Amino acid sequence: MSIKIIKDKCTGCGICYESCPNDAIEFDENDLPSINENCTLCGICIDQCIEGALKLEKEEKFVKVNVADYRGVWIFVEQNNKTISKVVFELLGAGKTLASKLKVDLAAVLVGDGIRDLTPLLFQYGADKVYLVENTKLRDYRTIPYTNVLEYLVDKYKPEIILFGATKQGRDLAPRLATRLKTGLTADCTGLEIEERNLVQIRPAYGGNIIATIKTQTARPQMASVRPKVFKMPELGLSKDGPLIEETIELEETDKWTKVLEIIREAKKTANLEDAQIIISGGRGLGKPESFKLIEHFANCLNACVGASRAVVDAGWIPHYHQVGQTGKTVQPKVYIACGISGAIQHLIGMKSSDFIIAINKDPEAPIFKVADIGIVGDLFEIIPELIKKLSE
Amino acid sequence: MKVIVCIKQVPESTEVKLDPKSYTLDRSSSKGIINPFDVNAVEEAMRITEKLENVETIVISMGPPSAEEALKEALTYGLNAAYLLSDKAFAGADTLATAYTLAKAIEKIGNYDLILCGKQAIDGDTAQVGPGIAENLNLTQVTNVKKIDFLDEKTLRVESELEDGYKVIEVKLPAVLTVTKEINIPRIPSFKTARLALKKPITKWAAQDLDNIDKSKIGMDGSPTTVIKVETPTIQKNTVFLKGTPSQIASDLIQKLKERYFI
Amino acid sequence: MDFSFTEEQQTLKKIVREFAEKKLAPHVREFEEKGIDYDLVRELYKLGVMGLSLPSKYGGGDTGFLESIIVMEELARICPAFTMAANDTWAGAVVVNSFGKVSQKKKYIIPNLKGEIFSSFATTEAGAGSDTFSMKTTIIPDGDAFIVNGSKAWITNASVADYYIIWGYTDKSKRTRGFTTAILDKGMKGFSFGKKEDLCGFRASFTGSLYFDNVRIPAENIIGSPGDGFLHLMTLLDAGRVAMASIANGISQAALETAITYVKQREQFGRPLADFQSIRMTLADMWTELEASKLISYKCAYLADKNPMDEELIKLASSAKYYASEVAMKIATDALQMCGSMGYSKEMLLEKYFRDAKFMSIGEGTTQIQKLILASRILGSKKVIL
C-alpha cells in the first residue's frame, strides 16, 4: 500500500512535487523523485503526472465476508413526521437502474412508527419489495435504535448495496451503521455505476475540486450516501403492490439513545440556502452594510434567498448563515447571481456547481467571471435597480 | 471533567488543480491548517473550561508527522495536552480505519466525558469519522451540533441542525458530538496563551503504543473502501458578457432567464 | 547570525496577522472616514500583543524589541494609521518604564497594558518640527509643583489619550540641560485640545494640537529630574524611528502583495501584465528593497536588545527610518502604476497606501534630518550640521 515511481517514465518535470498538498514528494539534485513519510496516499500526484510515472500499489487485504451471499439493492427510507424525504424517490430511481444491471430486487427499508401507510408510495416509485419495522420507540429518529434495527435487517437479509440520502439524518446514520457492520461507506455520491457486480461510487472531495471514484471491493454491504437533487425523480408508476416484509424487533431503550425534547422548524425567513433555487449574493463590492437592502429587494422580486461572501460576514454586515463558500454553505441553486463579489477561491468552491451563474462586478478581471455563464461588467448600484424595476413590471 | 477534541490537518486551500495561466504552485497556500470545523470544536472545548470547574482538555490528531504543526496551533487556544498518532502503518486509512485508530487512542487516554469533533474535514468531506469513533467506543452520538448547554455535570441539552430548523436533544455523558460552524466564532488566541502552549510537549504514539490494537484494522489494510482514481474536473465556461446601458443589460438578462425557464 | 524568527515570534506574527485580516481589514475605509474605533485597540491589548518589550511585572511580555516590530509590520500591512495610533497608546509606558520611578510605573504602565488608559507622545510644536530644541513649551517650578505653558502640534491620539508625555524647558539658559520630561493627565485644568487635522493620508488616527494654559502639575508628574529631558528624548527617538520603519515596511508589504496579485490576473495585449519584462524588473527591485529595509529594522532590534545606547544603533535607526520611508513611497508608487487606473481608483487600496506612504518620510524625523544625523555620525561627530 504505497505510491510507486516508475523511474523509466519519469521526466523530472516536477508537476507531482508541485501538486502534492502534503509535501510528500522530493526531488534530488539529479531530478530524481522520491516519496517521503508525509504521503497520505491521496493520489493527486498520480492524476497530475502526464507521463504515467506514478502508480498506487495495493493488495486487497480487507476480505471479511463471502461476497456472493449478499444480494439486492436497498434504499433507506428517510421520513420525518410521516413524510418521506424527497431524496428517497431520487434514490429509488437510481437504485432501480443499479438493481436492473445486477438483476436483483430493489427494496425500500422503512423504519419508524405509524408509517405503514407510506408503503404504497414506495411501490409506486419503483420498489420491488418493502421491509418494514414499526415500533413506538422509533417514532423520532435516533442514531442507536435505528442502527440496531438496520443491523438486524442486514444480518438477516444481506443486501449487497444500501443507499442513503446524504441528508443530515442520512449522514448521521450511515457512518454509524457502516462502522457497526465493519463495511465501506462512501459519502455524498454524485454518481453510481455497476462494474462487474461492484458498485462504482463517484463523489467530490477537496471542496469539489476533485472527483474521486471509489469501490468497496470485498466488504459487504456496499454503503453509500447520495447527494440530493443529483438523480432525477423517477416516473410515478401505476398503483403497485409487492411483498411487504415486516419484522418486529425488541428494543430496550437506554440513556445512550438520547431524548428528543423538541423539534423546531424554522420559518422560511431564515435562508435555507442549501435548498434555494435562486440565490443572490452580495460581497464587498456593496461598499457598506446598508447596501444589503438592495440585494434583499432584488431577492424578493425573484423569490430568491440572500447569500454573502465571507468578507462581508466577517465584517459583520450580515449573519453567518448567509455565507456561501468553503467555510460557509455549499449551494447548488438553479441560478446564482454574484453581486460585487470578486470570486476568491474559497467562495467559488461553495457555489460553482450552480446551474447558471451570473456575475456583476466593476472589475473585468474579477475571478468570478471565470465561472460565470453571464458576466456583467458594471456598477451593481446601476444595474440592480434596473433589474428590480423591470421585474416589478 | 475530561474533554477530548479530535482534529485533522488539511490543506489551506482545497484548490489542488491550478489555473494553467498562473505561475507554479503557491506553496504558501497549500500549507497545512487545522480543519476549520475542528477549530470550532477546539473553541467549544475552551468555552466549556470557562463555564465549568476542573475541566481537562486534550487534543488529538492522526496524521503524518507534519500534523504536529496543527496540534501546536490547537494548543495555542489554551488546551491542556496534545497527542499525535503517527505511523506509516496508519497511512492510507479510510474513515473506518481512521475512526478505529482514533478510538483506540481515546481508549488509552481513558476517563473521558465528552468527545468533540468538527462535523467534517474540508478535504475528505465525508463527516464519517465522528460517528465512527462513537460506534467504536459504544457511545451516544449527536451530529451537526450548533449549541451545547450543560443541564448538570452529566447531562447536556444540545441543538442539532436539521435541513429546515433544528432539534433539541437531551444527551447523557459520555458522548461524541460533531459540531458545525454555527456553534461559535473561534477566538484569536492570545499571545500569552500561545507562548505557554509552545512550551508544551506533544505526546507521540505509533501503532505499537496503542494497547490491543488489531493491525488488520488500521491503515490501508483496515480500509474497505479503495480510491480507484482521482480526477480534477475543469470548468469550461464560455462567459457571455452583456453590454449596453444598465437598462439594456437588465432587459437582456431577464430575457435570458426567461428563455431558460428560470423565472 | 540566526536570521529566522523563533517559534514564538512566528506564532506572534500569525496571531497579529489573523487579527489584522479578520478584525481590522473590514474597517479600513470606514476608519479613514470616521476615525479609529479605539475598542479595537483595546482588543489588541486583550490579545496580549501590546507592550511586549515591557516588564511582565507591569503586564508586559519581557520580550526583545523584535516582537514589537513584528506586531507593527503586520498591523501596518492592513492599516498604518491604526498601527501608529495603537503603538502610540503605549509609547508613554515605554518612557515611564525607561526613566520613571516605580510609583509612576505602577500608576501608568499597569493600567496602560491592561488597555484601561492610553498614552500619547508629544514633542513637535507648530514652530518646532525638525528644529526640536527651538520648542517654546515651558515647565517652570512653582513651589512643590510645576506650571506648564505652551502648545504641541501634530500629536497622535490627541484628546483620546489619558496621559501625555511632553517635553519643555525648565531653564532655557541651560539649553539642553534645562530640558524636562513631564506627564500631563487629560482633564487637568488648562489642558485643552485642538481639532482633528485633515490630512492627505493617515486619516484614521486622531492628529491634533495640545494647549497648555498655566497647567499646574504635581512634582510626581515629572519624569526623572528637571533637566533630564534631553537624555530621555535622545534615547527614545531611536525606538520611535525603528517603529516608523516597521510601519513603512508594512505599507510596502501591502502594496507589493497587491501589485503581484494584480499583474498575474490582469491581461493586456493577450497576456498577463506579469509576463512583461518591465513589470518583472520593477518587481525584482521592489522585493529586494523591501527585504533590505526589513533586515535593517531587524538588526536595529538586535542591537537595541544588546545595548540601547550603542553608537551603531543610533546610525542604523536613522538609516532604518529614512530608508524604509523612501522605499515605501517608491513601492507604493510603482505598485499603483502597475495597476493603472484601477490602482488610481478607490476600488483598490493602493491609492491609500500611496497617500499613507508619503507621511513616512515626514513624521517622527524627516528623511532629511535622519540623513544629516546619520552623516554626522559617519563622519565621527555627534554634532548635526545642517
Describe this structure in words.
Chain A is an alpha/beta fold. Helices cover 24% and strands 27% of the residues of chain A. Chain A has 10 helices and 22 strands. By secondary structure, chain B is an alpha/beta fold. Chain B is built from 6 helices and 13 strands. Chain B has a 9-stranded mixed beta sheet, with helices on both faces. A two-stranded antiparallel ribbon of chain B has the order 2-3. The longest helix of chain B is centred in the first third of the chain and has 16 residues, at 36-51. With 386 residues, chain C is of the alpha+beta class. Chain C folds into 3 domains: 7-113, Acyl-CoA dehydrogenase/oxidase, N-terminal domain (Butyryl-Coa Dehydrogenase, subunit A, domain 1); 119-227, Beta Barrel (Butyryl-CoA Dehydrogenase, subunit A, domain 2), CATH 2.40.110; 230-378, Butyryl-CoA Dehydrogenase, subunit A, domain 3, CATH 1.20.140. Helix content of chain C is 51%, strand content 15%. Chain C has helices at residues 7-24, 28-34, 38-46, 66-76, 80-88, 91-99, 102-113, 229-265, 277-306, 311-338, 340-344, 350-360, 367-378, and strands at residues 119-122, 138-142, 145-156, 163-169, 179-185, 191-193, 207-218, 222-223, 267-268, 271-272. In chain C, the strands form 3 sheets. Chain C has a 4-stranded mixed beta sheet. In chain C, helix 5 runs antiparallel to helix 8, helix 8 (229-265) runs parallel beside helix 10 and helix 9 (277-306) packs antiparallel against helix 10 (311-338). At the A-B interface, helix 2, helix 5, helix 6, strand 11 and strand 13 of A face helix 3, helix 4, strand 7, strand 8 and strand 9 of B. Strand 22 (374-377) of chain A pairs parallel with strand 13 of chain B, so a sheet runs across the interface.
Short structural description:
Chain B is of the alpha/beta class and 263 residues long. Chain B contains six helices and 13 strands. About 5% of the residues of chain B have low confidence.
Question: What are the segments of chain B in which pLDDT stays under 50 over at least 5 consecutive residues?
Answer: 17-29
| Count of DSSP strands of chain A | 22
* Helix proportion range of chain A: 10-25%
Biggest sheet features of chain B: 9 strands, mixed
Categorize the overall geometry of chain A. globular
Strand order of the largest sheet of chain A: 11-15-10-5-8-9-16
Total domain count of chain B: 1
Structural class of chain A: alpha/beta
Number of strands of chain B: 13
Average pLDDT, all residues of chain A: 90
CATH topology of the largest domain in chain A: Rossmann fold
Distance between the termini of chain A: 64 Å
